[in-house]
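Dear colleague,

Following up on yesterday's call, I've attached the two folding results inline so they're easy to grep. Please treat them as preliminary; we haven't cross-checked anything against experimental data yet. The first protein's sequence and structure tokens come first.
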Amino acid sequence: MIKSKNLTGGQAAINSLKKEKVKHVFGLIGSATMEMFDALYHQKKIKFIGVRDERTGTHMADGYARASNSPGIMLAGQNGPGATNLITGIAQAKAAFSPVVSIAGSFSTKDKMEDAFQGLDQQSLFKPITKKTWLVKNVKKIPETFSDAFKLAMSSRKGPVCINLPRNILSEKSKFKINENKISYKKQSLIKAKLSSIKKAVKLISNSNKGIIVAGGGIKNNSKHKEVIKLAKLLNIPIVTAAGHGDAIPFDHKLNAGQMGPRGNPVASRLVKEADVIIALGTRLGFNSTFYSYENINKKAKIIQVELEKKMLGMYFPIVIGIHADAALTANQLYKELKKQKIVLNVKKWTKSFLKERSKFLFDRNKIQSKNFPIQPKGLFRELRRVIPKNSAITLDAGTLCLQATDSLNYYNPPSLFTPLDFGLVGFSFACGLGVKLAKPNKTVVSLMGDGGFGMTISELSTAVEYKINTITIVMNNKSWGAEKAYQKDFYGKRYLGVDISSPRFDKLAELYGAKGFKVTKISEINRTLKLALKIKKPVVIDVDVDPKALYSFRRDTFKHRTKK
């Protein structure tokens, strides 16, 4: 039923969120959007999560969006600095194709930008890092703008949007039609591959002796692993997952080789370097997976790439067949055509060798000998694999320790791995985990961070405690900015500057915030501590002392021309 109501712009904006069935709004209050906050006070079905910083609030909205497959909302209450604080989080959401709807106050349309309090050209600021940015200049346009923003954020390929709302527009009153029955975005019809493309791909696949499937975000984000597994079983070939998408295929499926590339494992990485045909499903074959280098992918491999974003077909590597279509739907089409043609590949030796190598790799990984003190990263990851429940969601930061963890943990139910992906952001994991937990309250959420990254975002412990968002954060504390220290060690003659950091005890700080803190200094303490943490109905921080010498230079290609002096 459609009604008419006299509303302020702020009330109309919140009513638009109500229409979209929004359940949570992350935000930091400010004077520019007071009408919105006042209207939000009266909306009992929308829970407001007050954050301590707009950047981390946007990471929460990002985690919420990825975990729920619905828009994550971030409301910056202040124009100017409130808006600029969103930038890192929005740029991160863009890199992850995460449907974050950010809302920022703006100076009055009656003012000139250069004279306005906290005046800033927010349109120009957000334009490069969003799918679209709006500046609402007419109060009557608010419902239409919100509707367009939600539709665009959720349309393929998903991504962040921003709405700038001037102060005078939010306070102005007008009559609005109220329609609360229908959300703006809906399930999109999937793009199907052309039959001619499917037949070409099947012909190419049928001549393969060393085929693999690479499953990326296009599979993971829609939880369509069953279609990929069905295809892999029919062909009897390994599945490799793109970096950062190790949860695209459940860990315990025997054909799952794990994550590829410099940050993946040696088994999956070898497969990509030796494959004669690569079926790339929902992946750009991007930076973290390949470093855009033939050192990480077979130059002679014939690539069949299936991508929803047409411009990404063959963007980084030449392809033989490019299919602009939904990855899972295409996997199903390939399956049907292969079965129809009764194709049987000569891959028995290839796959048998892979299964043997993968089995040995997993056996050796679990049998690794590690000192009790100081704690080595591999030993820590082994203990985490033993204790973290299968239904868990795991969030990671960038940085050398988290990058070592990327394919050292096990992921089962997609989406269950949340990382900064190609944006390489430090300070992401803890805040993202809070958003994931709100989206999936029944999941155990474990966030891994270095001490530097956690120090950036520790104030959000107040948010976690206040709203009872009970995640477990493991701080891998090596008292340094580890990646940079590794580069100074390996390429700059150990001339250390700015890489050694000191922090107060994070377990003690957690207790001061009202959370539960633990300190771990020996490998033998990890198992028991994590089991205790899983039983506690509070946010938990585990401060783990990791060997400060356990450093690794990931981007050796960037520095290889440099010599030690």
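Below is the second protein, in the same order (sequence, then structure):
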Amino acid sequence: MGKYVQNFLTRHRGWVIFLFAVPFSFIYQKIEDFRSWIFRNFQSTNKFHEREVRHISNLVKKAHDSGQLMCTARSPWKTMSIRKATYKEDCAQIPINLKNILEIDETNQSLRVEPLVTMGDITHYLLPKGYALAVQVEMDDLTVGGLCMGIGIETSSHRYGFLFETIKSYEIVTADGQIINATRDTHPDLFHSLPMSHGTLGFLVSVELEIVKVKDYMKLRYIPTHTRQEFNKTMQELTDSDLPPDFLEALVYSPETAVIMIGEFANKPSDGKNINPINRWHKQWFYTYVESFLEKGEQVEYIPLRHYFHRHTSSIFFQLKDLIPFANKAWYRWLFAWMGAPKVSLMKYTMTKELRKRSLQNRVAQDIIIPISDMEEGLNFIDKHFEIYPLWVCPVKIRNKESNSGFIPKTNGQKEQIFVDLGIYGIPPSVKQSKWNGIETSRKLEEFVRDKNGFQMLYADIFMTRIEFEEMFDHNLYRKVRTKYHADKAFPEVYDKVIPEKWLINLEQEAVRSKEEAIV
């Protein structure tokens, strides 16, 4: 990329996204929708799948025999993480172009899909049949593979747990080319190690997920709170209840104000009133609409189910306002929003090195997961060090699997424990006054999370050293499984895949510097 082009892409970021990423995202999605329609109607997806898996197995065997480390050949810009995945340059890259829905089993209430199937593909396929995933993750473009080998959370997670808790089986090609169907019973060590392993134990080629019966609408109750104490008390009561709501999330708008949303599946109301299709292209962003209930007071609406499941897609949660500042204006919504939000992958494709460097220091995209008993302290910490609003709050049930806990922290001897995801997305106000140090502040956040026996989602940048990373994530089972299935000599470790690019930052030096400054 020439210097002039680099400078243009850096200086006119908003217009590049508006003029390039938005229309090309629309075109790209239409092509993908057509491809999926062709496969569903004219191809035997199971036969195609079996042929492709055998081909992948043969490629893996050859790479294994050569002694090379392996990774997928998927272009780094196509992933949801903002990292450039420079580790791929030193690996044998195995093409895994598996993006089909394979079969639905209504008797056992499960859905079998390939790893590049997206959440949008799944809702388009399942909802007309009266089903949804038990944990139907929000963003349209998130892939099943990324969520199963990483982590997936949604507003039903306080009942079901993370997405991986609803997985019935993984089909994995291991380091030596074996094809294994891993379940809780047949290969429990591998099965429980795969979440958050990020493709470092084998290649995922299909997964079977739990599905549930649904109705056409989500009956959503908006509950505004006006003090931090009221918010914490209400959230604790809802999650501690013997009959918790089916769906639960909250948006925190300031140190005092928040709106809690509880939902349940519902049929269309007989009077046809209070129906709100929130994702129609001309509607304001959902999170800005929800804020209005701080003034309106508690109310109930009926939202078409697919609109609810993808309610934050059009605004990329809260991040599009910083990328296209005018995208929530009425004129933009009516004239251009029909094309949808820009895809994260295409925005990443146009990201220059200078923009990547700035994002490391000035932009925050973090999800921290801590016990709900520490939620108030976590919110106070975020307010003090980040001052970013709104915040996304989503409770999740974590079960104690003892020796099979994998990377997920143990629950202090309890059978299960409620944690809470606090999502921080945006640009801190102090960036404009050049008073904010992104790396230093993020390291403080990481230390806070470790102290609370919590953890972070690894799609975002991390600033931990390897030692600090292994304090946050238990590697005991992971290392045993890597050795047992010969992955230790075939795949990079998780840490080496999720740290920022080496040309951006030396984490060991940064750790020493931040400790020295703390002493001073």
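For the second protein, one point worth flagging: The first strand starts at residue 70 and ends at 72.

Best wishes,
A.L.
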